[in-house]
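Please decode residue identities from the backbone states below.
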């Protein structure tokens, strides 16, 4: 772990790596982290487990290096993205026929498409009318393709086009509406160029065998498709406490592709399947500390629970003095309970003697320091792991020092190794 650099916990390296850069997800981690760990497994026949597949960093890199891997991703949208990134079997004939078919459909329908006012209100604020019509025509043209893998490939290209053709930067977690992209619009032109580059990227891959499998599954529950003790390693980065990883990027894409239409859809179809990472994931009135203390997580982790209750009281007290009065104290409890079940499932699928590598960040809601990495290490012991170690990657949170309403506590991003 001494050879890690400060960027290993960010997606900066992925932006210049073929296939990894097909989906611009800035909240991810570096593919080089996977490389470093797998160096010690060279020549071994193992399967790598990834409980938070995200945009596919672990699965894609394992496949590049010739390792089998399996993962869960609870968001349908992200599963489609991962499957597109893992399918390197598309032929020149399939690609040519598909791009020609989509192009014909767009040419025949873009001038007769409905007015932009008929499209989703959020999308209307992000694109000029000609581009919006083209984007929807491209989407509908892709739907007509019969091959599932080919459809996923071109939907992947279209998701990139949504960023390139937008008026404002679609950043993580929010849309930067105060900024404007100089080269917005020209949706079909950009879609064609992106598709061509993606196909070229596939030709550069070391092999065309699919070695990874992703399931649209919530890692807090048992996935019967993954057998007990079937994996020899885990590489992942769980959601950080109080960190909106997907935010409006996910909303733009899921609304455009028709998976969701409003915040209620996102709550019911997306958030309920996610580890509780933000105060928007639950209702304050449904939480009763005395009842929570009787649940499996609390009973299996009495010492950790005592520490959490102490922090719970401090965060709650500080919240009363803050303008937002957000229930970070309740969030913290839900988060660690959810992660307890993730760690139990992780232990189930890992064989004896295996290791798990998790990139994590500490937190300080309303100025109360929560040593997330250490707490999760302790919880892992109750889930069946035998020991853990923590390796610091970098300091974080410094940018808040000049802001009066934010904490000035030094935080860290770490690697938690479970054995």
């Amino acid at each position: 772990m001494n050879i890690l650099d400060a960027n290993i916990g960010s997606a900066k390296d992925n932006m210049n790596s073929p296939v990894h850069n097909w989906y611009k997800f800035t909240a991810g981690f570096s593919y080089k982290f996977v490389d470093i760990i797998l160096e010690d497994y060279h020549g071994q026949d193992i399967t790598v487990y990834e409980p938070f597949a995200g945009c596919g960093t672990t699965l894609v890199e394992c496949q590049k290096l010739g390792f089998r891997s399996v993962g869960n991703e609870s968001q349908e949208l992200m599963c489609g993205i991962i499957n597109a990134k893992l399918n390197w079997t598309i032929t020149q004939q399939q690609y040519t026929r598909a791009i020609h078919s989509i192009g014909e459909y767009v040419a025949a329908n873009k001038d007769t498409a409905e007015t932009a006012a008929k499209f989703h209100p959020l999308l209307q604020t992000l694109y000029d009318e000609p581009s919006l019509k083209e984007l929807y025509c491209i989407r509908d043209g892709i739907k007509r393709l019969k091959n599932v893998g080919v459809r996923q490939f071109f939907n992947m290209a279209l998701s990139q086009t949504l960023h390139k053709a937008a008026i404002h930067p679609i950043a993580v977690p929010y849309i930067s509406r105060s900024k404007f992209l100089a080269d917005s619009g020209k949706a079909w032109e950009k879609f064609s160029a992106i598709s061509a580059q993606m196909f070229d990227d596939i030709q550069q891959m070391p092999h065309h065998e699919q070695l990874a499998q992703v399931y649209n599954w919530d890692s807090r529950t048992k996935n019967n498709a993954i057998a007990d003790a079937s994996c020899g390693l885990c590489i992942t980065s769980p959601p950080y406490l109080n960190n909106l990883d997907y935010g409006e990027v996910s909303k733009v894409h899921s609304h455009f592709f028709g998976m969701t239409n409003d915040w209620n859809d996102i709550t019911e179809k997306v958030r309920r399947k996610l580890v509780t990472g933000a105060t928007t994931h639950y209702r304050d009135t449904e939480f009763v500390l005395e009842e929570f203390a009787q649940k499996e997580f609390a009973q299996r982790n009495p010492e950790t629970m005592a520490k959490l209750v102490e922090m719970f009281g401090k965060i709650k007290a500080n919240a009363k003095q803050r303008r937002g009065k957000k229930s970070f104290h309740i969030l913290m409890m839900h988060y660690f309970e959810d992660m307890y079940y993730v760690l139990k499932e992780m232990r189930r699928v890992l064989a004896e003697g295996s290791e798990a590598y998790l990139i994590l960040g500490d937190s300080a809601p309303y100025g109360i320091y929560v040593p997330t990495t250490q707490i999760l290490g302790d919880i892992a012991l109750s889930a069946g792991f035998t020991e853990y170690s923590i390796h610091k990657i970098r300091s974080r949170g410094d940018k808040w020092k000049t802001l009066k309403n934010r904490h000035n506590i030094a935080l860290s991003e770490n690697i938690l190794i479970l054995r």
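Observation: Confidence is low (pLDDT under 50) at residues 400-404.
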